[in-house]
Amino acid sequence: MKSKDLYTIGEVSKICNVSKKTLRFYDQINLISPDYISEETKYRYYSQETLLFVPVIKYYKQMGFRLEEMKVLLDSESYETHINSFRNKIDELTLKKEDINIAYKSVTEWYNLILEAESVIKYNATEVSIKYIDEFTAPCMVQDFSGHYMESIINIEWTNLLEEINQAIYGPVIMYFPNAKEKYNKLPTKAVVFQHNAKEIESGETITVGGKMMISAYHIGSHENINATYDKMYKWAEEHEYVCSESSIERYVTDYWTIKDSKEYVTEILLEIIE
Q1: Helix ranges (DSSP H) in the chain
Q2: CB burial of residue 214 (10 Å; 0-12, 13-18, 19+)
Q3: Residue 39's pLDDT band (boundaries 50, 70, 90)?
Q4: Cross-strand pairs, 142
Q5: Measured in whole angstroms, how far is the alpha carbon of residue 131 from the centre of its chain?
């Protein structure tokens, strides 16, 4: 670009790769204004110094500054203004980064759960096995359970509690049943609902699970006949001379959140081995 006294709006548009409409809007909001407007033709002309503000604006845009924020920076004559503006932008972007990370983690985990369920159904992977469950601590809520799975899994009280403690979660809904026999016999019992936390836990009740080998099996289909899978697991444990605790964990891989057809639901059941 050779230096000359003035550039037309068309030349600025071509040189800086920015539309004439955008340049007119910048003028309208007093962000970048032409140095001279012909009284006869109404043509806009820009000096080289003014033209060079366009790359600065593009870089501010890359950093996430809004147009009104850019104007403050372009008009500034002190470092203090820039320091305050950049500090505020860093704080703002930090919050956005956290939100994006949570959204990414949530979407990725849900996608993986669908793939997991699809694989379980495709290969009818319902055999009983033993697996190691990594230990983790998660926010939780104790609730009464009387066999109504849908209201326990799509849980309004749980959702409200997470909002109250400013917590975000990801992954499947999981329920811990301290007394699996009561649940098996369709008696009113207690359940602890929990999910992986996407933020640091600062308040509320927590539960720690895993850190041990557990008996595992997938149940395909409605929760109404989930006892059939429990029967298979208890029988397998007895045949292999394992003693299980009174509790159980149900991990809802896919359920009411994901698909309407209950025949496509996939639930992983985990039984703790004590001997």
Answers
A1: 9-16, 20-28, 48-51, 53-62, 67-75, 79-122, 149-153, 156-164, 180-184, 227-239
A2: buried
A3: confident
A4: 192
A5: 27
